[in-house]
């Protein structure tokens, strides 16, 4: 009915509607760019380890312990909450022998006789769907040690059901986390220590995220840059502060414990042939600010005033489109319509 009486306004409104939509369309990509401005990349620095005294370990039929790397502190009791998620029995049996990595090619009988001979820090059997607790007392003498734990149910250890309990010193000092990967990287490859005094003892828990074996080898001399071709002869002349062998096998961990005498930047590398050359090195910053990462190439291709102007265009365009659609014409002219006009 309205269209029959006033066919004109909609036709007159069309160009204004189109112009408004066009303006809004032009402004949209700019508005979108605002939401894609780059954010500062994270440096990925290692954080000091926490010292939780309770941890939950799931037992699965894969068979696996999840997680398979545990941390406890000396002069404390670590409570391990065991949750058997599977349909088989599993045991949580912790070796009493520090630093010994059990051989997965052993038979179940050989594994059992190892524990019969050497004893265990904990030995708890958990039925399918059940939960249990293991309390492990860690005295001062086991600081820096690593103890393997296994399931003694035949062939579960051999199939991968093992893990490591790593004991930190609860005394003063700094504890850091580091991991190694099969892509021949230290993750992170920047560690930072703020020492209140020197000498300062530092413990780096190095966990293997991949399957290859590695080393965590730290130069004793600060502000010296190693090269893949000279490091062997360099370390012969200047023994490293620490050279910890990271066992092959995902989830295995080792402590790299050392004492720092002075601030500076210390380089660490993996000594396995070819790994350093492939980029397996990192830097330890001791009481030295970690340099900011190189700024990524800017993706902000528009200036602030362009953003503001585009925002204004967007508002004007949308308003034009809305008003033109609503009134059916824009701007008002005396010869059209008539209602509300004063002529
Ligand atoms: Cu390596």
Q: What labels would you give this structure?
A:
343 residues; alpha+beta; Immunoglobulin-like; 5-stranded mixed sheet; 32% strand; binds copper (II) ion
User: Which regions have little confidence, pLDDT < 50, spanning 5+ residues?
Assistant: 35-44, 47-52
Terminal CA distance reads 25 Å
Q: Supply the CATH class of the largest domain.
A: Mainly Beta
List how many beta strands DSSP finds: 18
What profile does the largest beta sheet have? Answer: 5 strands, mixed
- Quickly give the structural class: alpha+beta
Helix count equals: 5
Give the names of the bound compounds. copper (II) ion
How much helicity do the residues have? 10-25%
Give the DSSP E fraction (strand runs of 2 or more residues).
25-35%
Any idea what the CATH architecture of the largest domain is? Answer: Sandwich
Series of secondary-structure elements, N-terminal to C-terminal? HHEEEEEHEEEEEEEEEHEEEEH
CATH topology of the largest domain: Immunoglobulin-like
Shape: extended
What is the residue-averaged pLDDT? 82
Q: What would you report as the Rg, rounded to the nearest angstrom?
A: 33 Å
Strand order in the largest sheet: 3-9-8-5-6
**CATH superfamily grouping of the largest domain:** Cupredoxins -  blue copper proteins
What would you say about this model in short?
The protein has 343 residues and is α+β, with helices and mostly antiparallel strands. The protein has five helices and 18 strands.
Folded structure, characterized:
With 343 residues, the chain is α+β, with helices and mostly antiparallel strands. Residues 35-44 and 47-52 have low confidence and may be disordered. It is extended and about 100 Å long. It folds into three domains: 10-30 and 310-327; 50-171, Immunoglobulin-like (Sandwich), CATH 2.60.40; 173-294, Cupredoxins -  blue copper proteins (Immunoglobulin-like, Sandwich), CATH 2.60.40.420. The two termini are 25 Å apart. It has five helices and 18 strands. The chain has helices at 2-5, 8-35, 108-118, 231-237, 304-327; strands at 54-60, 64-66, 69-73, 76-84, 90-95, 120-126, 131-138, 146-150, 162-168, 174-180, 186-187, 190-193, 200-208, 214-218, 242-246, 253-260, 264-269, 281-286. The longest helix has 28 residues, at 8-35. The site of copper (II) ion has 6 residues, from loops. Copper (II) ion (CU) is lined by residues 184, 214, 270, 272, 275, 280.
